[in-house]
Amino acid sequence: MMRSLRGRLFVGLTAIILLTGAVGGILAYRWAYSEAIEMQDSVLIQIGSFALSAPMRQSRPVTGVDAEAEVAVVELGDAPRGATDDRRLRGLKDGLHNDVYHGQPVRVLLRTRPDGSRFAVTQQTEIRTEIAGDMAVRTLLPIAALVPCLLLMTALVIARSFRPMLRLAGDLDASRVDDIGTLPTTGAPSELQPFLDSINGLLRRTRVMMDQQRRFIADAAHELRTPVTALSLQAENLASLDMPAETRDRLDALKSGMRRTKHLLEQLLALARQDAAPSTVSAAVELDKIAKGVVADLLPEASARNIDLGFTTVETVVVNGDPLSLISAVRNLVENAIKFTPDGGAVDLSVHREDAMAVIRIEDTGPGIPPQDLARTGEPFFRGGQPSGEGAGLGLSIVKRIVDRATGSILFENVTGAGRSGLRVTVKLPLADR
Ligand SMILES: Nc1ncnc2c1ncn2[C@@H]1O[C@H](COP(=O)(O)OP(=O)(O)OP(=O)(O)O)[C@@H](O)[C@H]1O
Ligand SMILES: [Mg+2]
Question: From ligand 1's centre to the CA of 361, what distance in Å?
């Protein structure tokens, strides 16, 4: 059983067209053939009528009918010296007969003139069937030409009718997981309407569920933030008290645990915020200013570890977007670069224009990302095959969402070459039109 509706339609219609063509062709051929035979008989009768009034001195082929028709008028004299064929013809009654003349099967018309003389109009059967066959074949030509045309048109009509379906599938494929809209129902074939309605219903429910999930994560992170902040305050207060060295060690471990938890909650909250309804804030933002601000913020952290944090290129580049989100994206990238770069390394930033796009590039001298981890980089909570350093594993997911929202692109490349390693992250964003 063929699975494709298109295939089934085409095969079915092709069979119908071919069958109709064949049956029509056979009927037309047979009809035209017998018509042609009858027509030739009537030609014989007409020639007989002419010969009736004017006896000919001798038998002769009739010219002027059709050079190939080979019609002959044979005078059947009384003389018994006539050939056996003539004698036998004389024995026939007036009218049309099938007979043999000069060894050839013929169609023969016998007539008797008023004066009693008789003659025969003959035509070779072989020639007659040949002419009839030719004429009948000619009636097949239009049918033969029509069948391929019909097949072609059928194929075109089928292809056209299925185009809306393919277009809908394309629309669905093109939509992003976190941004599934509804499929347009106007202009779609009515047969597809029930499917579209169910798919749209499903999409709606999925959207509601995803929204609920996002809100839950955001709410949970938000709710947890307050008690965790309170706990860290308590830990800070505790630190000011006198205590044995061992207790202080435990307290320090507790404090760094608190710090990590707070960071995780903050990252979760930031991710949930990016996942929620698209930010309505959209302004012309100077990307170079944002980058400078982030670098200024992180400079103390970098210099504490002797990392050379700075710019290689800075151009004034303006993009459209939510300034807070863009700051968060750049900050996460530069934080990563600093975190994964060994002490004494370097982190270089470049903000410039490239192919009518705004580009921010961050390059470090860290270990880079192992090639087998590159594909999964940016998945929530993915921190590489061998996680190193502290982190929630959410930073790049946040960056990816923000870049996605801004219809930009992000690329991770490992820097290789002469004893060098490091990660190069390139973010491209559409320039704001002025
Ligand atoms: N500059 C870099 N050099 C080497 N590895 C990196 C770099 N940036 C990211 N990675 C790898 O990608 C992983 C994911 O980065 P991401 O920023 O999402 O998480 P994180 O930094 O571990 O945690 P978070 O940013 O949420 O605190 C990191 O754990 C690290 O393995
Ligand atoms: Mg990070």
Answer: 16
Nearest CA to ligand 1 atom 27: 391
For a pocket test of ligand 1, which of 333, 336, 362, 369 has the largest count of ligand atoms closer than 8 A to its C-beta?
336
Residue located nearest, by CA, to atom 12 of ligand 1: 383
Nearest CA to ligand 1 atom 21: 391
Binning pLDDT at 50, 70 and 90, where does residue 263 land?
A: very high
Assess whether the C-beta atom of 383 lies below 6 angstroms from ligand 1: yes
**Which of the listed CATH numbers 3.10.450.50, 2.40.110.10, 3.30.930.10, 1.10.287.130 matches domain 190-273?**
1.10.287.130
pLDDT in tens, 179-212: 667 777 777 788 888 888 898 899 899 889 988 8
Are the C-beta atoms of residues 336 and 390 closer than 8 Å to each other?
A: no
Half-sphere exposure of 326 (CA within 13 A, CB side): 29
Question: Half-sphere exposure of residue 314, counting CA atoms within 13 Å on the CB side?
Answer: 13
- Ordered DSSP codes for 101-141: ETTEEEEEEEEE-TTS-EEEEEEEHHHHHHHHHHHHHHHHH
Domain ranges in the chain with CATH number 3.30.565.10 = 279-430
> 293 CB under 6 A from ligand 1?
no
Tens of pLDDT, residue by residue over 95-119, are 999 988 888 899 999 998 888 888 8
Q: What is the homologous superfamily of the domain 279-430 according to CATH? A: Histidine kinase-like ATPase, C-terminal domain (3.30.565.10)
Helix (H, G, I), strand (E, B) or coil at 59: coil
CB distance 368 to ligand 1 below 6 Å: yes
Ligand nearest to the CA of 394: 1
Ligand 1 test: best mutation among 309, 383, 386, most atoms within 8 Å of CB? Answer: 383
Q: Which residues are 164's β-sheet partners?
A: none
pLDDT at 81: 59
CB contact at 8 A, 200 and 193: no
Q: Is the CB of 345 under 6 A from ligand 1?
A: no
Instruction: Give residues with Cβ within 8 angstroms of 116, minimum separation 6.
Output: none
Phi, psi of 185, deg, nearest 5? -100, -15
DSSP letter at 93 equals P
**Atom 13 of ligand 1, nearest CA residue:** 383
